[in-house]
């Protein structure tokens, strides 16, 4: 029986995490194991059954995907989805890593060459995506740093930095006028 290569996945403490299961055909009897122990299974004609440590905090869908609510550090480990299609048994292996919750990002501002330069930082073990939103502009900027010409800095303009990892976002806001020297 062939095991597909193990897929590494990462969630964050406190979020609802769904394993990225992509199966095209109709499947039967999905069973999820964590480190060899069954944690969720769906036998013919029955409702899904859940076992500790996922009892009362997970949901198994008909397509085999499993969501864990309120992810904990202890949820990290090796998960295997076993299922049948019309012909064979199949296995999907996942290695789940659980990172600490996202911090609030820090915003630093400085001025150089008639520009206000905003920098967004956050201490985190995974690679974050960054975005800036200005209160007077509809679109956002996908960058860790944002430069604004000083002549465009309005007295009421606010800038928000949004960091994102997996399914979780955090943001911080600053009034641009506070940044000016």
From TrEMBL:
SUPFAM superfamilies: Immunoglobulin. Its main location: membrane. Gene3D superfamilies: Immunoglobulins. It is found in: Membrane. Coiled coil: none annotated. GO terms for cellular component: membrane. Keywords: Glycoprotein, Membrane, Signal. InterPro entries: CD2/SLAM_rcpt, Ig-like_dom_sf, Ig-like_fold. It comes from the Eukaryota. This is LFA3 protein. It comes from Cinclus mexicanus. The gene is Cd58.
């Amino acid at each position: 029986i062939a095991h597909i290569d193990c897929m590494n996945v990462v969630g964050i403490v406190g979020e609802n995490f769904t394993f990225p299961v992509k199966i095209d055909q109709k499947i039967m009897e999905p069973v999820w194991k964590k480190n060899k122990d069954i944690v969720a299974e769906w036998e013919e004609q029955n409702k899904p059954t859940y076992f500790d440590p996922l009892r009362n905090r997970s949901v198994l869908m008909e397509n085999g995907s499993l969501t864990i609510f309120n992810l904990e550090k202890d949820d990290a480990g090796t998960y295997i989805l076993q299922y049948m299609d019309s012909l064979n048994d199949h296995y999907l292996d996942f290695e789940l890593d659980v990172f600490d919750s996202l911090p609030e990002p820090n915003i630093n501002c400085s001025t150089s060459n008639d520009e206000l330069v905003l920098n967004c930082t956050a201490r985190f073990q995974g690679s974050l995506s960054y975005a800036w939103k200005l209160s007077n502009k509809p679109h956002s900027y996908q960058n860790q740093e944002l430069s604004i010409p000083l002549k465009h800095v309005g007295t009421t303009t606010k800038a928000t930095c949004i960091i994102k990892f997996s399914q979780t976002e955090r943001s911080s806001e600053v009034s641009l006028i506070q940044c000016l020297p």
